[in-house]
C-alpha cells in the first residue's frame, strides 16, 4: 500500500464527463489499496474568465481581491470531483486551501507555500477517505486567500506530496510525458522514461510547458518522485522525475527547449568603465524587469562598448522606458530593441562529463546558416538567442545532431 | 452619519457593467458619510450553472460539497465589487463567510445563521473601509462552508445588519418595492410605502418572491428597518418594512399573494376515528413532505369521512408514494390527487380589527363563479385553494374588492 498524490490539470477536468473520467482514475488507485490525495486545477477556461472580469473592472486591481476571485475556479472543481467520487462509491471530501490549511507567504498572485499542516489530512487518508484539494491556492498570514501564480496547481501537488510524505506524485496532464523536445515541431521527438530533477528544472524554465518550474524545484528539494502522465491514456507512457543517480545512461543532451517569449535590447556605445552595468540593471530591477541573457562586446578603443541583453517580451516596453529615464546616468549613444528573437536551449546532465557538447550546437547552427546573437551557459545547459524565424529549423537540426530522433 | 447594509441581488450584479453601477450606488452612500457594508449575490445565472453541474454528477450529492461548489458564485461577486469600488476611489475589501466569520448551523444547503462576529468588521467600517460580504453562506461547526438556501443573501444582509447594529438594511433588487399584488397580473397594483413585518412575512411565505421569508422573520425579530428598492432606479420608490405601530392607517387587506406551487391530495372514506390523522401525516413527515392546508369533511354516517390536504407540487409523487405504502394502516377507500390547483391569499394586519374581511373574499369569488376547495386562515390572512385556471381572475377581483386598485 502506498500513499499517492494525483494532480489533474484544467483540460483533464474541462467538463462534467471529464471529471467523471478523473473520478474513475482515482477509484482505480483506491481499489489498488492506495491512500489517495487529489489536487485539481480549475476547469479549462474558468480561470481565464475570472481573470478577464477582474482586469475589465480595473487593470490595477488589488492582488488580494484578484486571488479571492480567481481561487474559486479550483474550489468548484474540488467540490465537483468529490461529488463524482461519492457517486461511484469512493469516500471523498473536498478541501480548500484555508481548510487544510496550506499556509503561504503574503505575496499575493505569486505566493510561495510556507507550510502545509498534514496531520489532520493524513488521519483522514488513513481512514480511507480521498482528499480532493483545490490547487493553486493557500491562505496568507492575514487570513486571506492567496494564489501561487499560473500553473501553481503543480506546485500544490508536489508540496502536498512532500508534506504528506507521499510515495509518489502523479501529474496527469494532456500529454503523456516529457519529450526530448516539442513534438509539434519535431515529429520524431521521443518521450523520456526518466529525467533528472535538474534537467527538468532547466527544461521548464527554458520554455517546456509541461510542469511549473517551481514545482520541479520543490520536488527536487524534497526528493518527491514525480510522474508526468496523460489523463486520457493513463496506462501508456509517463515520465518519471528522479534523482540524477537513478539514471544509468546519461546522454550528453537530454532535451531541447525553446521560447519565443523573448526580446533583445542593445545599448550602443556605453562607457566601458566600472559601474556601467549597475547603472543599467539597477533601474531595470527597480522597474520589476527580469533580465535574462547578457553579453558585452569587447571594446574597440577601450572607451566605449555595446551591451546586449534579453528581457521577457511582455516586459519590453517597461524595460525601454526605464532605460530612457536613466539615460543621463548610463550615457549610451543609441538604444535598439528587437522582438523577433527566440531562445533555443540544449539541456543534459551528461554535459558535465562530455566535453565539446556546446561546440556541436554552434557547428550545427552554423551549417544551417543560423546566426547566434547571444550565448549563455550553465553546467547542464547551453542557450542561444537567434532570429525567431529560425526556431523550428534550429530545434530540428539540433534534435538530429544530438541523436535524439526516434528510430 | 449612519451605518447601513446594502444588498444587491443576482440581476443587479449580472455583468461587469452592472457591477460598476452597483459600485456607484455604494460610493454615493459613502460620500454621504455613511459606514457601509455590502452583501452580494452571485452573478445571475452562475448559481444555476453550479447547481446544474453538481446535479449532473449526482442527484444524491453530498450537501457539504454542493455548498462548497455553489458558494463560490458569491465569492466571485464580492471580489469583483471590491475591485470596482477601489477603481473609483472607495476603500473596500471582500469578505467570505468563513473570514468574518458568519457561523451557521450544520444543516447544509439550508443552514441557519447562529452568530456573526461583528467586532472586527465594525472596526474596519469605522476606519472608512467598505466591507463587501459574500451573501448566502457561512461556516458550519465543522469548519466547512454552508449555504442558507436559495435567496439566502437577503437573510445574510438582514443578519449582518442586526449584528452590526446597522441603522438600515437596503435590499436592492430588480423591482422598486413591494406591491399590493403581482403587477404582471394586476396592472393597477400599487407599490406600498410601508408594510408591517408580519404582513411581509405572510406575503413572502404565501408566494410573493420579493424577499426570502427567513430574512423577514429575522428583520422582525431584531427590529431591523429594511427597505426594498430598485438597483436600476434607486431614487424612486422603495418600500419600508417596519413595526406594526409605525403604520398609521391599517387597511383590512394590504396585499394579495398567490402560488401555483400546490397540489391537492384527497383520501376518500377514511375511518372517522381518533388516530387516523396521525396514521396519514406521520408517514408524510417521515418522507420529508410538508403538508400545508388540511380539511376534513363532516362524516355522513359517523364512520367514514373524506380528508383533503395540500403539499408542494414538487413533493406530490413522494407524498403519494408514502401514503400508498401506509395504506394498510390508514384504511382509505380511494386516493385522488390534483396538480391543477393554486392558493390565493389575502393578507393584512387590519383584519384583526375589521370583521367580515373573509366574507368579502368568499362572496367575491362566488360572484365570479370560482369554487373554493380548501380554506385556511390565521390572524392576519385568509388562504383559499382554487382551480389554477382561475388564479388571475381571482386575484384581480379581490384586488378591486378590497379597494387596492391604483387610482
Explain how this protein is built.
Two copies of one chain form a homodimer. Chain A contains 13 helices and 18 strands. The mean pLDDT of chain A is 93. Chain A has helices at residues 16-31, 46-57, 63-70, 72-87, 119-126, 152-164, 197-205, 213-222, 276-286, 316-325, 327-330, 357-367, 391-401; strands spanning 3-8, 35-40, 92-95, 102-104, 113-116, 130-134, 137-139, 145-147, 168-173, 194-196, 226-230, 239-242, 255-271, 291-296, 304-312, 334-347, 374-378, 381-387. In chain A, a hairpin with an 8-residue loop joins strand 11 (226-230) and strand 12 (239-242). Chain A folds into two domains: 3-174, Acetylglutamate kinase-like (Carbamate kinase, 3-Layer(aba) Sandwich), CATH 3.40.1160.10; 256-401, 2-Layer Sandwich (VC0802-like), CATH 3.30.2130.10. The interface between A and B is large, with 36 and 36 residues.
* The number of domains of chain A: 2
Proper CATH architecture of the largest domain in chain A? 3-Layer(aba) Sandwich
Distance between the termini of chain A: 38 Å
CATH superfamily of the largest domain in chain A: Acetylglutamate kinase-like
| Helix run count of chain A | 13
**How much of the polypeptide of chain A forms β-strand, as a percent range?**
25-35%
- Please, what is the oligomeric state? homodimer
Biggest β-sheet description of chain A: 8 strands, mixed
Largest interface, C-beta closer than 8 angstroms, per-chain residues: A-B, 36 and 36 residues
CATH class of the largest domain in chain A: Alpha Beta
Fraction of residues in helix of chain A: 25-40%
Q: Give the strand order of the largest sheet of chain A, numbering strands 1, 2, ... along the chain.
A: 3-6-2-1-9-11-12-10
Mean pLDDT of chain A: 93
Amino acid at each position: 500500500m502506498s500513499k499517492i498524490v494525483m494532480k489533474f490539470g484544467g483540460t483533464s477536468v474541462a467538463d462534467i464527463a471529464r471529471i467523471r473520467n478523473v473520478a474513475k482514475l482515482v477509484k482505480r488507485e483506491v481499489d489498488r489499496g492506495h491512500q489517495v490525495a487529489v489536487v485539481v486545477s480549475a476547469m479549462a477556461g474558468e480561470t481565464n474568465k475570472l481573470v478577464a472580469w477582474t482586469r475589465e473592472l480595473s487593470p490595477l486591481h488589488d492582488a488580494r481581491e484578484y486571488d479571492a476571485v480567481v481561487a474559486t475556479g479550483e474550489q468548484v472543481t474540488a467540490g465537483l470531483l468529490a461529488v463524482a467520487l461519492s457517486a461511484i462509491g469512493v469516500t471523498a471530501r473536498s478541501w480548500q486551501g484555508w481548510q487544510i490549511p496550506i499556509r503561504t507567504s503574503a505575496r499575493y498572485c505569486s505566493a510561495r507555500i510556507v507550510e502545509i499542516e498534514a496531520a489532520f489530512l493524513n488521519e483522514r487518508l488513513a481512514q480511507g477517505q480521498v482528499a480532493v484539494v483545490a490547487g493553486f491556492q493557500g491562505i496568507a498570514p492575514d487570513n486571506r486567500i492567496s494564489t501561487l501564480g499560473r500553473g501553481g496547481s503543480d506546485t500544490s501537488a508536489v508540496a502536498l506530496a512532500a508534506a504528506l510524505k507521499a510515495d509518489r506524485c502523479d501529474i496527469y496532464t494532456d500529454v503523456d510525458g516529457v519529450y526530448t523536445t516539442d513534438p509539434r515541431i519535431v515529429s520524431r521527438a521521443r518521450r523520456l522514461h526518466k529525467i533528472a530533477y535538474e534537467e527538468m528544472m532547466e527544461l521548464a524554465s527554458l520554455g517546456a510547458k509541461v510542469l511549473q518550474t517551481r514545482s520541479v524545484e520543490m520536488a527536487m528539494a524534497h526528493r518527491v518522485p514525480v510522474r508526468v502522465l496523460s489523463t486520457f491514456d493513463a496506462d501508456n507512457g509517463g515520465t518519471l522525475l528522479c534523482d540524477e543517480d537513478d539514471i544509468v545512461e546519461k546522454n550528453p543532451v537530454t532535451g531541447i527547449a525553446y521560447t519565443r517569449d523573448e526580446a533583445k535590447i542593445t545599448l550602443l556605445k556605453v562607457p566601458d568603465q566600472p559601474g556601467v552595468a549597475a547603472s543599467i540593471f539597477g533601474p531595470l530591477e527597480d522597474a520589476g524587469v527580469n533580465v535574462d541573457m547578457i553579453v558585452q562586446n569587447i571594446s574597440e578603443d577601450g572607451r566605449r562598448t555595446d551591451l546586449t541583453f534579453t528581457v521577457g517580451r511582455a516586459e519590453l516596453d517597461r524595460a525601454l522606458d526605464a532605460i530612457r529615464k536613466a539615460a543621463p546616468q548610463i550615457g549610451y549613444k543609441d538604444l535598439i530593441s528587437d522582438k523577433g528573437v527566440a531562445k533555443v536551449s540544449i539541456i543534459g546532465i551528461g554535459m558535465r562529463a562530455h566535453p565539446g557538447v556546446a561546440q556541436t550546437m554552434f557547428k550545427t547552427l552554423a551549417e544551417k546558416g543560423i546566426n547566434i546573437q547571444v550565448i549563455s551557459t550553465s553546467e547542464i545547459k547551453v542557450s542561444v538567442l537567434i532570429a525567431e524565424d529560425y526556431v523550428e529549423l534550429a530545434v530540428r537540426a539540433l534534435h538530429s545532431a544530438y541523436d535524439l530522433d526516434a528510430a
